[in-house]
Amino acid sequence: YAMLLSLIFLIVLVAAVVGFVFRHEIKTNFESNLNLALRDYNVTADRHSEAVDTIQRTLHCCGVQNYSDWERTYYFTQRGIPQSCCKSQDDCSEEDLKDPSKAKLKVFVDGCFFLVTSTMESKMSVVAGISFGIACFQLVGIILACCLSQYITNNQYEMV
After folding, report:
1. In which domain of life is the source organism classified (predicted)?
2. Which CATH class is domain 1-158?
3. pTM for the structure as a whole
């Protein structure tokens, strides 16, 4: 049991170190994947399009760097900027969303990449604290399992 806990502890420790060391690559991959999701965005509501809509609605953002990122997509030529970028769903018409100068007043202008990464970084202290607490419990479990094993081994020879 102590060996299993030690193995899990080491795996979590390695994952944390790798995540910390490669955090810039993670950001770069996220940005490129978000750009791909915008490029392939469509009306059929596949899971990538739903994810983009959810991010835009939840964080009140639009596009990767800003709302003008949508102008380089196929979706924009068809329907303009998506409804999920609108500040108010009642005040966004399709004609407004097709005109970037009108859309600027009706959609969120901030990009999602910065908001997502800043939200993740602001929550890192909470994640690190919880991880540290779990690691402490695992270490206590390892120590107690080793003590129990030692106790069982010592008492085995005293039986008559």
Report:
1. Eukaryota
2. mainly alpha
3. 0.68
